[in-house]
Design goal:
single chain; 198 residues; mainly alpha
Length: 198
């Protein structure tokens, strides 16, 4: 009970609002450096699904996505056929957008190609920040950019490698989510906790 009360009184990035799901995501996941390829693929698919929507919407559907997309195993997703696409389009638990579903399948192929070329997707992805999280010191949500030179470079390279739904804004959101950049505000309790992680 004391731990819950202490967490409730912590200063957080304002984008969490009072939604328990958003707060848990902020406190436990957002900005934590990730090197697990399956999770990196999951975030790529979810960030693409988010395009034009809120992250809250996607987060509420995350468990359904995990079920529908075989735990985000790219080796399984790459084999999806027309019947599977039809089943996904009928699944009310996920965002039923044909372009986003087909993009996830296309991206699974490109993801596997990157793994083959670099040994892991993590090894490929982290090159764009020289292997270490960029430690920003933002004081207000309004000072956080929608894209950066690093997200531009990663987005362009992903497109060249056959990925879709990977524009620079989507990729910057991905970089924030998987800890390539620490964009917690300086007065947020997570900023300092994540500052020393790699």
């Amino acid at each position: 009970m004391k731990k819950e009360a202490a967490l409730a009184n912590k200063k957080r990035c304002t984008w969490t609002g009072t939604d328990p799901l958003m707060i848990a995501y902020h406190d436990e996941e957002w900005g934590v450096p990730l090197h697990d390829d399956r999770l990196l693929f999951e975030f790529l698919v979810l960030e693409g699904a988010q395009a034009g929507l809120s992250w809250r919407t996607v987060l509420r559907k995350r468990d359904a996505y995990r079920r529908a997309f075989d735990g985000f195993d790219p080796r399984k997703v790459v084999a999806y056929d027309k019947r599977k696409i039809a089943a996904l389009l009928a699944d009310a638990g996920i965002i039923r957008n044909r372009a986003k579903i087909e993009s996830a399948i296309k991206n699974a192929r490109a993801f596997l190609d990157v793994q083959a070329a670099f040994g892991s997707f993590a090894a490929y992805q982290w090159r764009f920040v020289d292997g270490r999280p960029i430690q920003n010191r933002r004081r207000a949500v309004g000072s956080i950019p929608a894209r950066t030179p690093q997200s531009d470079a990663m987005s362009d390279d992903l497109k060249r490698r056959g990925f879709s739904f990977v524009g620079s804004t989507i990729i910057y959101a991905h970089m924030q989510a998987v800890g390539m950049v620490n964009d917690h505000l300086v007065d947020c309790f997570r900023h300092g906790e994540l500052a020393g992680l790699a």
